[in-house]
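User: Can you help me understand a structure? I only have the sequence.
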Amino acid sequence: MSATVAMTVPFVRAIADLREHVRVWRAAGERVALVPTMGALHAGHLSLVAEARRRAERAIVSIFVNPTQFGPAEDFANYPRSLDADLERLESVGADLCYAPSVETMYPQGFATTLHLEGPAKADLEDRFRPTHFSGVATVVAKLLNQAQADIAVFGEKDYQQLLVVRRLARDLDMKTQIIAAPTLREDDGLAMASRNVYLSLEERRAAPALYKALVDCARKIVAGEPIGDVMGKAREALATLGFSVDYLEARHGETLAHIARRQDGPVRLLVAARLGKTRLIDNLAV
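Assistant: Let's start by predicting it. Here is the structure, written out as tokens:
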């Protein structure tokens, strides 16, 4: 009796192979979607693939841990990598292709191009703490969009500032790919799903949902008419007492990320980044 072999979605590593798949699908009149990821896939990523499948006949998922978006003191070397498990998960949601290029493919010898960013990339949020991050994100996303030439690309709202950066990038560079936002997927206790959640200890995991609860509480108070500055200040203090080291917890304009003082000047988006132990968590919520 032969052993059962788990089927996995096909994957390619070369740009030419990726483009050949897209060419064949296009010739058949099929729409193509791209879901860029760094792997270590969880249910949140799979929800992005499901959204891609709702909007297009073919869904490509890229897996590439992008070194240029990590700072010198960040966790590039230890970032979770699990390609075999990722391919099985992609098979379960009907992805058509996984594109898993090497670092040498994405950044060949002599690579010398970077993107200068303003707008949502200079909002004094993530960029304050990770000053080179969005340059790396924009570079790799621009390459992926150019390589795949997909009709749409799906990004999660959890990385909200990144989403706005990518939208601006595609608009400013006249890229053909439409950028689609998909809602944040959460655990039952409200914690936003993220690959880095695996770094949390059991005690930290029990405490982590307080971050989302703080956003919900802030939104409720702002809707009730309490001053935004007072609400956010008290929430930062409350999180600190719970053991979070808060990088930022702010109310910003939901389309521009400009500072906002009144709900009437909205739409309002609450954004937070905080460390719990060695793990940095980010989240956001529309008011």
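Now, to help you interpret it: The chain has two domains: 11-182, 195-286. The chain has ten helices and nine strands. Let me know which part you'd like to focus on.
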